[in-house]
Sequence to fold (561 residues):
Amino acid sequence: MIIGIDMGGTNIDGVLIRDGRLIKTVKNPVDRNDYFYSIWNCLAQLIEDVNKHDINRIQLSTTICTNAIVEDNVSRVGMILQPGPGLHWEFDRLGEEIAYISGSVDHRGKLVKAIVRNELAEIKRRFQAGPVESIAVVTKFSTRNPEPEQQVKQFLRSDYSNITLGHTMSGKLNFPRRVETAYLNAAVSQTFRTFADYIQQALLQEGITAPVYILKADGGTIDLVRAIDKPVETILSGPAASFMGMTALLEQAQTDQVLLDIGGTTTDIFVLVDGIPVFEPLGIMIDGRKTLVRAIFSQSIGLGGDSHVRFESGELKIGPKRLDRAVAFGGQHITPSDALVYLGKMPGDFPEKSKVALEVMAQNHGIDPVMLAERIIHQFCCTIDQTIQQILERFHQVPVYTIRELLQDRKIKPRSVGLIGGPAKALASDLEHILELPVTYPQHYQVANAIGAALAKPTMEINLMIDTERDVLLIPELDIHQTPGQYIDLSKAKWFALDRIKAAGKNMGLTDDQLEGEIVEASSFNMVQGYYRVDKNIRVKAQIRPGLLQRLVDDGQGVDS
Fold:
């Protein structure tokens, strides 16, 4: 059995899946004063009357790190940077404790100048007076030679337990993105560690021994132990759960398509090209920071079923803030959900209260209440349409990356729209009218995110670098630093990368049938040394392709909810 839990901004959803069949669902309001209770209250309902020993895995989608970053509720980070010669990078949003050290390696990974130990001693004294809670160390070209970062960690490890090294964040070259990624990882590390401690304690108390996985931004999962070391990977796991849920529930057409997840607080928008998701080529941006975190492309807008509806200077406004639940569901402020309840498109817990509230707003502004409700829904759908058009226009101006390839000069023309989220069924016909495209929603659309979290499989990307002159073979993501051996060539390097990525997949619990290891990029350059010697510089990128552990089986027996 698999348990999937998605904690959104409004509701926490949970599902229990046995042999591919959905057998139980839970949907509760999120207690914003106690997120952890929200999760475990959901879990307790799911495991009621279930043999705990039959639970194979628990998979979570969490907003814990995203919220910490957006709300600036993060640890104080001591940044140690070794930029080396060349461009002088300015970083103005890394806190007050930034230290630059001398020394450098070149683009091949050769040591040019060693670190001065006295500099580290002075930095340690300064950080301890801070006080600094977490450390991030980033040296330029550390993916080619991680030794300087490792030396700094060795020097500080007795004083700081939480040290992020830049080369472990990604094998890609991009110094400023690596700095931002390492900073965010260190900044949210304690927040995520506390979250993980609560999970582990609760599992122990409940007598559950199943492994726990956290959804990543690329639609795959990472086990809880590795997520503690690399919590930055869990940023935007909510939109990833949305996408994986739609992948599990919607019919997969080999055409261009737009996918929408309309939640209580936000709407997440995804784009498929020939049935394949658009991917962020370098990494996601969050809070204005460009990172190296792999991610499925998504755009969130502050528009959901519980968005605040009001008039400002005579103009109707919807969102972006959510002040409360809809009046129809026990809240105090009118929302698009109230308009849907008023028009009879969805049920509510308190329809009469909602009706009175909307009619009072209509009377205050001299509008027929039916016209007001219709206007709210029309404006809601038009905002989504405008955002979709903006996304497509941006894609038409730059190359489009999918999870498999780079598409040059490819015009994206959506043929249909897939829809999930609480208001999906109620909004489908209105969206179809505004978007002028077929709109479909699947069974279990209300808990699609939790289903996506439950069925997502572990993923990983590795970057292999071989330099025969230096006699080194590096895979930063796996912390591999060894000699390549004799007679290495591109073919052998590709085989080695696939072997390592498959071994990593098996360590994450994937079976041979679930492992889709593939080479994404591969290149080899000859470097002539003098008249006789030819060295090789080899680069190979491999990945476990994101996907589902299994398909959901619909046997028509229904679920316990």
User: Anything to note?
Assistant: The CA atoms of residues 471 and 485 lie 8 Å apart.
